[in-house]
Amino acid sequence: MRARFALVLLFVSLGSLLAIAQDDIPTKVTDQNRSGEMPFSTSIGTQIEHVDVGSAALNIVVPIVKFPGRNGMDFEFSLHWNSNQYMMAPRTDGQGNPFYIWTMEQYSGWQANQTQHSYISKILNCTLPVKGTWVAYTNYIYTDPTGTKHPVIDQAASGAQGSCVGPGDATGPDLTEQGMLSSNSQNRGSFAVLNSDGSKEDLQDSNGNQKTTGTDTLGRNPCTFVWTNNNLTEQVTCADSSGTAQTYTINWQTVNVTTSFGSGGTCGYGSAVDITGGATRNVVSSIVLPNQQQYVFKYDTGWAEVNEIDLPTGGAITYQWGTVAWDCRLTRRYVTSRIEWPNGVTNGGVCPTGSSSCSTWTFDLSTSHVDKITYPAVGSPAINNQSTFTTGAPSSLGDGAITDAKIYAGSAQGTPLREYQMGYASDHDPLSDEGCYSDVFPPPDDNAQPVNQRVTRITTILENNLQKKIEFDYDSFTYTYHYNHCDTYALNNTAGTYTGSRGNVTEIREFDWGSGAPGPLLRRTDKTYLHNSNSTYLTYNIVDKVLQDTIYDATANTCVGVSQPCAQTQYEFDNYVSGVNALISTGGNQAPQHDYTNYSSSFIYRGNVTRVKRYPSTATGATPLTTIYAYDDLGRL
User: For the chain, how are helix, strand and coil distributed in percent, rounded to 5?
Assistant: First the structure.
């Protein structure tokens, strides 16, 4: 299905965090709008801000409060911001001619750590079996509390009885190999996501413990949120461990948004129309802590991008920005330099050569799909070391995945001190098979790219050409998806079968060092999973539990030539034995925020590990070292 943009359901947040003349909803995740933490990536920065080395995108996360909750379901409030906030959206003029505009993405900019859901809807015509219209709800995207987007494959529809409305798909997996399962209950645009451990988003765990946006697992409201000053000041007041109220003040400001992307990246449709005049965005200007120390955020003119963070400790970090257009419709903004100022004096954002009062990292994306990073000078004489990080093209691999990393002493030339080569597996994108949408943008109007990227190989190469390697195999599963949105029932009832992965590693192979090529196999670790042994766990989407870890030293199932493992660990789940580790009921003195109807002590499919058997020797008849775990029906040990 090619990219389209439409209205979405409103997101109920802790407050009105942003405003702009017009925001659009994406139909897929690409390098242009990917946000949050990317899988298999690395970054440069601090705990609250860092630049992704593959894309040079900036990610900011400011924790504000955190209170422990039952079974790790903590109450947290934080704010995050990602620089991939601009996107190209298709439009047509009065004569039906296609063109693109620049807009900002819905839920971009500063956001709280809450889950978000988006989808597109489209009114389609019916010709068979009866004439009329129907509405397709599809291209669902789930955004987790960190701001990371996960496209999911389920869809719903509405229309007259007996029309051409297809069956839809009430459930479907995510396309980010995280083992998620989305379910819409055929309720149009409303959907919910189960994580791979059976938890429901960040609101309920697999033992039935619950929380809400403002309520913790004890049923308390730890914080109050009060907006004043025309919704430009938010006061978050929480009681500390002594019961004393502590207030955090979040100040917002409204900035104008104008862009000047230029003419690149539209693939023959002319220059995309920039954002000009009248567009605004609400951005965080400062976060004042209870001790009156504060974070201060400053922005460049026009782009609404963070160009300075003043830290509570007195230091500062500044950023400079540029535009890159590597691929068709993947033009985007990126960090060109990041400078740390320990004493907080930013010198107009310019770090003098040789200065001891600042440290500069630069990011050069001038070569297609390569980020060349220059680090602060070190040593005597001082040398600026460089590294290069190569990412795969969308058509062959997908965006954001680093395929090669070279670490140099000095400039990026000659033989690197160390190199990492990464190989990936990926799956076919089911959203690319749409056969019936009438689209004035002929294909390709969006980049086809694989999904579910996962690392299969990491090869390490030293300066002297010594090499070692580690390889990964993953699980796979199949699912059915109705991909057509057409004008007849026959076409809409057409189903396709796709193969994907939940991202579970099934085998790891570690190879020794070798000259010019990796050496022989040293260790092979096989993993089996609970849901493959007991399909009932699929019902609750508990699909990440390792049932058995087995280690060999050869491709055969042998250890030092003997037909046995070198080591083995076995895990049992939800094996509650009366008189040993029976599941203890708390029903007589019920805890708040627990679903006793569905998660009483009689319900066992929770994913709790109840026994671990470790075999110090794998010889026939060896006795394992066994650890037994007991729980109550809240999941507490």
Answer: 5, 45, 55
Q: Give the contacts of 242 (CB within 8 A, at least 6 positions apart).
A: none
What are 540's two structure tokens? 């609750």
Question: Is pLDDT above 60 for 9?
Answer: no
CB 36 within 8 A of CB 259: no
Place of tokens 């009430």: 170
> What is the enclosing helix (H) or strand (E) of 530?
helix 530-533
Residue 85: count other Cβ atoms within 10 Å of its Cβ: 26
* pLDDT at 13 exceeding the cut of 60: no
> Model's pTM, two decimal places?
0.91
Record the tokens describing residue 284, joined without a space.
């965080």
Find the helix or strand (DSSP H, E) in which 536 lies.
Answer: helix 536-539
Dihedrals phi, psi of 349, to nearest 5 degrees: 80, 10
Question: Residue 455: what residue type?
Answer: V
- Which helix (H) or strand (E) segment holds residue 375: the answer is none
Integer Rg of the chain from CA: 27
DSSP, collapsed to helix, strand or coil, labels residue 539 as helix
Q: Confidence class of residue 20 from pLDDT cuts 50, 70 and 90?
A: very low
Angle, alpha carbons 260-52-333 (nearest 5°): 5
**In which residue are the tokens 């690395």 written?**
42
Q: Which residue shows structure tokens 């980010």?
A: 176
- The answer to whether the bond into 381 is cis (omega within 30° of 0) is yes
CB-CB neighbours of 244 under 10 Å? 9
Give the CA count within 13 Å in the CB-facing half-sphere of 306.
31
**Beta-carbon-side half-sphere exposure of residue 21 (alpha carbons within 13 Å):** 12
Mean pLDDT of the 443-447 span: 46
pLDDT in tens, 342-363: 988 888 888 888 788 899 999 9
